[in-house]
Design goal:
about 1100 residues, alpha+beta, Apoptosis, Tumor Necrosis Factor Receptor Associated Protein 2, Chain A, 7 domains, five-stranded mixed beta sheet, five-stranded antiparallel beta sheet, about 20% helix, extended, hydrolase, Peptidase_C19, ubl conjugation pathway, EC 3.4.19.12, Ubiquitin carboxyl-terminal hydrolase 7
């Protein structure tokens, strides 16, 4: 097979861990033939997601070679050590479980290094190998090197020479010494002068320590520790480092004594080392060579990661900024950095038209925003708006995903968004490759070819340590929001495979997991073209700048929020259409929202209203809403003389937000000011009209009335408001509180006597007198009583994850049948084809199903709901719910005769049925073979191994799937229906290396006693349907009681049926059944089959 690589090929081997790394560096042009990759100078961008190192070794050190007692000692914190026998414990939560690290080369200035390129041999599969050759660059003049920065931006001043690097306080490593004088008289701990690494002060801490030996004899030792940021009062900082603590020899020819540590330094553990670095006797022994003139010299070599939680200026030290991690978005951060450095793609993204896009749903606009901030921002860039544009919920950002899968989904989305624009075709132009597969006959002139396109190819990289012999000395490491410089060794050797033979000085050395991006040398000019500010459309720049301006305003508002309060203003039109109690629904009202300083006076607020509503102050009156003791909320008066000069927070009685009704002069009125209102003699009344025919409430305005006015004086006013004839007889009711509306019978009495506790804001409900009994709710009393029992219920489809559902307003007095009919009408189905489920008390998920014979009311179903939103779940059925309740749901696996694919099926046999009835039910759902036996059997599957299933007469109640045990139904092959003498059905399972590492689809296979092994293999090959070349790699074993006995693949070997007969062992009451194991490589993705948290990655918008 020959393959032609396009411009970019990418590979991701593993995504099971939380670490993702981006590398940018000089690379090579790649072309593939049947077994080789040739390389020339070009640029490689690499994204890796290596498996994270087990952190249990963080507090351990390499043992000393010459001291058995000291070999068992681990580095510890100086403040927490009292004896040599102390245990070392990890700091809970001190190390992130998800770490995002990326590398991108800062600059390429070393031309000699660029000339020397060699790729490590890479392995395509077990047969073919891909090696590399070094070729002379031939695409340009001169020495063939390109010294442009990889991201097309100006060269950075932070590239310095080695001598300058040693004096740089932001450097990643350093070696420093401290000489202790008068050692024999030392009693207290001593600290060396500070040496700055990663802008943090590091000091040597040395002290004498006393302890007891195992024989409980007193012993004195030298305590040697490394302290980081010891004088800082901050508690939020942390810095991961590895170090070698050395005691130097004063004699020529004597070796120094050293120990290594690795630790996450933070405020509570800011020093780490050994309380018993060396016995005091050995330190003072002149023959050992460590002391001279009563002095010893201690040395530390430390390599540190960039710190977190301190003021680390990534832009200053590297010229780049990082991306904030939302929880588990390290894989995404790594990929975004890689795409950002693909300058041609960045240019194309900038040119995508997004002027009319919704800023919260546009993926293209969100990606433009991220790229723009990465290019121009001085601080780490957030990605929440980007993931929100994907349509992701908060939980999605805490879920780990495959970076290769995410790349494909994102590129597909970008490609579709670019269609019909000036940048259409950019994605395939950059990332699409072509592969030519051909078959060529040796003896005749025939050749068959097939061309396939791809965006990524799979390569297995061998564990070679030295990939490139020479690169630029300085690299940049992208660790989420922190970007720092690192060495070539850390960037290449410690992120590109290899074995960690010793605890090396590399920080967080991880291996083997990559997405490699190759850029063809001939396309270097295009892909890495410089991205200038003028390449960004001006309208995009203006939009992003406006977003930043608004964000700054919002940030300022949040900062000053304690000085302000919110006033929600309701005008009279806000009361129109309200169908409930009181005048408005607080959750759905149309407020005019004002942000007012708390110490502003009411009069100043009136001036603000006047300016906003364009009404003079004398045409405005404020009526704050206040909560009454009877659970109602009604307007009350602000006294003009006493309250206008009060601070608004005092009038609001510290309520925030503060809801007020603002009365205005009617627009069609000739009045120049509102009529006067006397709080002692007048009352403010509101009116509602009830229409029994349509079961509707209509708001009819407000009116000032003298408290001594008779009720009948309201009749003409109400008829006029309702548009009735003046002599229309009306029935008047007082709305007292929810579920309490009383009729006013005596219309000749004054208001103050008729209305209960007459107050401003009282509500009069009226309707026509007459024959209203024909209606379902003839009076407003019945209407409000019915309203009291009405509740909004959300129904969610149980079969759709995170289904938002739909909301219906139902009566709590509804029966099950009434509820089912209402929901069925909403979803368009039969009520008996719906099954309902209660919502669990403390978990937003369906509980037990409701029986269709439930005799209670809706109130009993939702009264336990803790949240204000009442929720029920439902599912649509294929059989009637009354039939389903007499059946049992049974989930199992169905596998066809080819043994290639499994699928889950759900059966509904009768509750009191047996396995036989279950198999009959399965026949109705599955597709049987055309010439098959037509008979089914049930088997047990446990950890990809097979066991015989229960008999046909076993009751279904005895079948329980639990843990890893599943049930599988399959059609019995014709040759397994009847077994002759000397034949046996044997379970067969696949495994790799370990018999407990089973995988794939197990099955039964018929063996014959005395059958030659090659003949059995031929039958097995036919049953499996795999390629003969692949089958040759299989090994065969008889596995009994967890131990494999491999079969010698010899023509003379014959199958012995006795090897597979069940046998008893030890105290076991049931026989152990041997099985035939097929040992070979598992080529399926190594991901958990049952992982309820992990789901396919999607971009919804």
């Amino acid at each position: 097979m020959a393959a032609e690589i396009g411009r970019t090929a990418s590979k991701h081997l593993s995504s099971e861990c939380g670490k993702a790394t981006s590398l940018s560096s000089p690379g090579s042009d790649v072309s593939l033939d049947s077994s080789r990759v040739t390389t020339t100078t070009t640029t490689i961008t690499t994204t890796t997601t290596p498996p994270c190192r087990n952190r249990s070794s963080l507090a351990t050190a390499q043992p000393a070679a010459d001291n058995n007692q000291q070999q068992q000692q681990a580095p510890i914190n100086a403040d927490n050590v009292t004896s040599t026998a102390e245990a070392v414990t990890e700091v809970p939560g001190a190390i992130k479980t998800t770490i995002n690290i990326g590398f991108a080369m800062n600059h390429v200035n070393d031309q000699e290094n660029l000339k020397q390129l060699s790729l490590a041999p890479v392995q395509v599969n077990e047969v073919e190998e891909m090696d590399t050759q070094e070729e002379t660059p031939n695409d340009g003049g001169g020495d063939g090197t390109d010294n442009r920065p990889i991201n097309g931006e100006p060269e950075l001043a932070c590239i310095v020479q080695d001598q300058e690097m040693e004096e740089d306080e932001a450097r990643s490593e350093a070696t420093f010494r401290y000489t202790v004088e008068n050692v024999s008289k030392m009693k207290d701990s001593q600290l060396s002068p500070a040496c700055y690494v990663r802008n943090l002060p590091w000091k040597i801490m040395v002290m004498p320590r006393s302890s007891q030996t195992q024989e409980r004899q007193p012993q004195r030792s030298l305590g040697f520790f490394l302290q980081c940021n010891g004088e800082s009062e901050s508690t939020s900082w942390s810095c991961y480092a590895v170090a070698e603590l050395r005691l130097l020899s004063c004699k020529e020819g004597h070796e120094l004594f050293s120990r290594k540590i690795q630790h996450l330094f933070y405020s509570k553990e800011n020093d780490w080392g050994f309380s018993h670095f060396m016995t005091w006797q050995d330190v003072l022994d002149p023959d050992k060579g460590f002391i001279k003139d009563d002095s010893i010299t201690l040395e530390v070599h430390v390599v540190a990661d960039a710190p977190h939680g301190v003021s680390w200026d990534s832009k200053k030290h590297t010229g780049y900024v990082g991306l904030k991690n939302q929880g588990a978005t390290c894989y995404m951060n790594s990929l975004l950095q890689t795409l950002y450095f693909t300058n041609q793609l960045r240019k194309a993204v900038y040119k995508m038209p997004t002027e009319s896009d919704d800023s919260s749903k546009s993926v293209a606009l969100a990606l433009q925003r991220v790229f723009h901030e990465l290019q121009f921002s001085d601080k780490p860039v957030g990605t929440k708006k980007l993931t929100k544009s994907f349509g992701w919920e908060t939980l999605d950002s805490f879920m780990q995903h495959d970076v290769q899968e995410f790349l494909r989904v994102l590129l597909d989305k970008l490609e579709s968004k670019m269609k019909g624009t000036c940048v259409e075709g950019t994605v395939p132009k950059l990332f699409e490759g072509k592969m030519v597969s051909f078959i060529k006959c040796k003896n005749i002139d025939y050749k068959s070819t097939r061309v396939e396109t791809f965006y990524d190819i799979q390569l297995n990289i061998k564990g070679k340590k030295n990939i490139y012999e020479s690169f630029s000395d300085y690299w940049c490491k992208f660790d989420d929001d922190v970007v720092s410089r690192c060495t070539k060794q850390e960037a290449i050797e410690h992120n590109y495979g290899g074995q960690d033979e010793d605890m090396s000085m590399a920080v967080k050395h991880c291996t083997n997991a990559y997405m490699l991006v190759y850029i063809r040398n001939s396309e270097l000019e295009n892909v890495l073209q410089e991205v200038k500010e003028e390449d960004i459309p001006q309208e995009l720049v203006e939009r992003l700048q406006e977003e930043k301006r608004l964000e700054q305003i919002r940030r300022k508002e949040r900062t000053e929020a304690y000085l302000y309060m919110t006033v929600n203003v309701l005008l009279e039109d806000s009361f129109d259409g309200h169908q409930g109690n009181d005048l408005y629904d607080p959750e759905h009202a149309l407020y005019r929202v004002f942000r007012v300083r708390k110490q502003a006076t009411v009069h100043e607020f009136l001036e603000l209203l006047s300016d906003s509503l364009k009404y003079p102050i004398e045409q405005i009156r404020i009526w704050p809403f206040s909560q009454r003791s009877n659970q109602t909320c009604r307007p009350t008066l602000i006294e003009p003389d006493a309250d206008l000069q009060k601070p608004i927070i005092d009038c609001a009685e510290n309520h925030n937000p503060w809801n007020v009704f603002v009365e205005l002069v009617p627009p069609d009125s000739d009045m120049t000011a509102l009529p006067p209102f006397d709080k002692d003699t007048d009352v403010l009344l509101f009116f509602k009209l009830y229409d029994p025919k349509n079961k509707k409430i209509h708001y009819c305005g407000h009116h000032y009335m003298p408290v001594v006015a008779k009720v009948q004086e309201l009749i003409p006013i109400l008829n006029e408001r309702a548009g009735f004839p003046p002599d229309t007889e009306l029935a008047l009711y007082e709305e007292i509180k929810p579920n309490l509306v009383e009729k006013i019978d005596n219309l000749t009495e004054p208001l103050e006597k008729v209305l209960e506790e007459l107050m401003d804001g009282d509500i009069i409900v009226f309707q026509k007198e007459g024959d209203n009994e024909m209606y379902e709710l003839p009076t407003c009393r019945e209407y409000f009583k019915d309203l009291f029992y009405r509740v909004e219920v959300t129904f969610c489809d149980k079969t759709i994850p995170n289904d938002p559902g739909f909301t219906m307003e139902l009566s709590l007095r509804m029966t099950y049948d009434q509820m089912a009919k209402a929901v069925a009408q909403r979803v368009g189905t039969d009520p008996y084809l719906l099954q309902f489920f209660k919502c669990q008390n403390y978990k937003d998920s369906p509980g037990h199903p409701l029986k269709c014979t439930f005799e209670g009311t809706l109130k009993e179903l939702v009264s336990y709901c803790k949240s204000k939103i009442k929720k029920l779940f439902y599912q649509q059925l294929s059989i009637r719910v009354n039939e389903l309740e007499n059946k049992k749901q049974f989930k199992c696996i169905w596998v066809g005769p080819s043994l290639k694919e499994e699928k889950e099926i759900i059966l509904y046999p009768n509750k009191n049925g047996t396995v036989a009835t279950l198999l009959e039910e399965a026949k109705k759902q599955v597709e049987l073979s055309e010439n098959g036996s037509g008979k089914l059997r049930i088997l047990e599957i446990n950890c990809n191994k097979l066991l015989p299933g229960p008999g046909d007469d076993v009751p279904l109640d005895n079948l329980n799937s639990s843990g890893t045990k599943l049930y599988r139904i399959e059609e019995i092959p014709n040759d397994e229906l009847h077994l002759a003498e000397g034949e046996l059905l044997v379970p067969v399972a696949h495994f790799h290396k370990d018999v407990f590492s089973t995988f794939g689809i197990p099955f039964f296979f018929k063996i014959k006693n005395g059958e030659p092994f090659p003949k059995m293999k031929d039958r097995l090959l036919k049953k499996l349907g795999v390629q003969e070349k692949e089958f040759e790699k299989f090994k065969f074993a008889v596995v009994s009681m967890g131990k494999p006995q491999f079969i010698i693949d010899s023509p003379d070997y014959c199958i012995k049926i006795d090897d597979f007969l069940p046998r008893f062992s030890g105290q076991s009451t049931s026989p152990h059944r041997p099985w035939l194991g097929l040992e070979h490589v598992n080529k399926a993705p190594k991901r958990s089959r049952i992982n309820y948290l992990e789901k396919a990655i999607k971009i919804y918008n």
